[in-house]
């Protein structure tokens, strides 16, 4: 049995994707917890080798609708204060930003589809180097202010704050974990959002299949590099 990784999942289909094969190859014991149902204890927040907080269709500022978000943000905050390896993807990145005291709010437009991110100089020197020029899946409407003490790693024209590092923590607004070969679950789960945004399901499916292989290689390399840099490989 290897190191334990708890992954907080908000919807079933937004899972670790291509990251999971990397973790299992490195002998991690991966356990999913369903947000709002399966609690993460105070001891786990402060002692687990790795916690990954995944995405979901709600907003980090909707604590009145989803009161458990308060506990999730507080748990992430305690973990970040100890500089323990923590990754947040999409909603998870927004939760990390909120835990570090930054504002999370609706962006100027929804950003949904495959495309690259522009890496900063720090991003090119980081574990995100493998993503330079690679397609990644974007699927969000919210954004956040860059937390104090965080290093900006990536941007897009619509979303200036696409990724940041804060010590041993990594926040990713986009989805380098997404497996384009399994996009159908996303297309079903987010059908209402796609309809409201006027986006073509068939076009997104086609783009996903076209970009799947290159995106998977880049995402796997990024994850393995990050694990090495935070001392978990």
Would you kindly provide a written description of the structure presented here, covering whatever features stand out?
The chain is α/β, with parallel strands linked by helices. Helices cover 36% and strands 24% of the residues. It has a single domain (4-229), classed as Class I glutamine amidotransferase (GATase) domain (Rossmann fold). The protein has 8 helices and 10 strands. It is globular. The mean pLDDT is 97.
Write the layout of secondary structure elements.
Elements: E1 4-9, H1 18-25, E2 29-34, H2 42-47, E3 50-53, H3 68-81, E4 86-89, H4 91-99, E5 104-115, E6 118-119, H5 121-124, E7 136-144, E8 151-155, E9 163-166, E10 169-172, H6 184-189, H7 191-197, H8 201-229
Parallel strand pairs: 1-2, 1-3, 3-4, 4-10
Antiparallel strand pairs: 5-7, 6-8, 8-9, 9-10
């Amino acid at each position: 049995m290897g190191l334990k990784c708890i992954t907080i999942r908000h919807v079933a289909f937004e899972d670790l994707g291509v990251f999971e094969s990397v973790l299992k190859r490195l002998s991690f014991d991966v356990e999913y917890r369903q947000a709002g149902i399966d609690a993460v204890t105070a001891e786990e927040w402060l002692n687990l080798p790795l916690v990954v907080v995944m995405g979901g269709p709600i907003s980090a500022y909707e604590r009145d609708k989803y009161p458990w978000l308060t506990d999730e943000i507080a748990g992430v905050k305690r973990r970040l204060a100890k500089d323990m390896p923590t990754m947040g993807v999409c909603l998870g990145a927004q939760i990390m930003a909120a835990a570090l005291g930054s504002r999370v709010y609706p962006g100027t437009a929804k950003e949904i589809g495959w495309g690259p991110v522009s890496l900063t100089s720090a991003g090119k020197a980081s574990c995100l180097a493998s993503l330079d020029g690679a397609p990644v899946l974007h699927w969000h409407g919210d954004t956040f202010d860059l937390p104090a003490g965080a290093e900006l790693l990536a941007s897009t024209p619509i979303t200036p704050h696409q990724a940041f590092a804060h010590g041993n923590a990594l926040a990713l607004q986009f989805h380098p974990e997404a497996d384009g070969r399994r996009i159908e679950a996303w297309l079903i789960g987010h059908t209402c959002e796609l309809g409201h945004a006027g986006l073509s399901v068939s076009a997104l499916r086609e783009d996903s299949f076209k970009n799947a292989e290159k995106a998977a290689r880049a995402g796997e390399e990024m994850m393995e590099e990050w694990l090495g840099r935070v001392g978990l490989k």
